[in-house]
Amino acid sequence: MILEFFSVTDTGRARRNNEDSVALDEAGRIAVLADGMGGYNAGEVASGMASERVKSELGQRLKASGATPTEAEIKTALLDAVDSANREVFDAAMSHPEYAGMGTTLVVALYRGDRLWLGHIGDSRGYRFRNGHLEQLTRDHSLLQEQIDAGLITAEQAAYSMHKNLVTRAVGVDELVDLEIHDYPVEPGDLLLMCSDGLSDMLTDEQIEQLLRTNDSLPAAGAMLVQAANAAGGRDNIAVILARAKPGTRDFAKSWWSFWR
Prior knowledge:
One of its GO terms (molecular function) is protein serine/threonine phosphatase activity. The chain is an alpha+beta fold.
């Protein structure tokens, strides 16, 4: 299998600046998406710092692990890269008054062998689209999700909540950060969708699924997702990363190793 990537960000209809950030290392099979928060310009500073640091650190650490890193090495690389990004954002917030309180959500995808490793913090999401069906792989680190889990509100009631954007974890707001990591088998044709809440708050999973069913081209699918989110109100910045596993003759590990040699 080979991988095909596409990414897009959009300011949306209600915001003047874009605090969402994406970073791709296609040869290294790494994708990072971040949704910043903070005062004037601080959110975009936080998300840009975090996405670029995670991408570069993760690539360097996995390169040092050799051609076929173990599961433990992959997890350690993910944790260390995100910890490094957290320290950078936290230190910048502490050192510059104009950045005080800034932070960012984060979702990072890493493909190795026939598996997808997905780590996240906050409410930016990762979905898998397989055989026409969309499945949310990440679980929001948010007050709203905690209320749903506790049975205080239903998922239907959550759609109309005033507290959608209150996250319980974020990069850069504390000295330590807790990255949630899971791994999944990859099948030919699998499509990974990573997005900020500017997409998932505007569209239902069913609407996203239908758009992915009707657009086989990744650029077309990405453009339609952004267009639909804006048509639904565009109340926040929108960020989308799409990654598809395509049938082919090239081996995942061999192609990755030849890149780093």
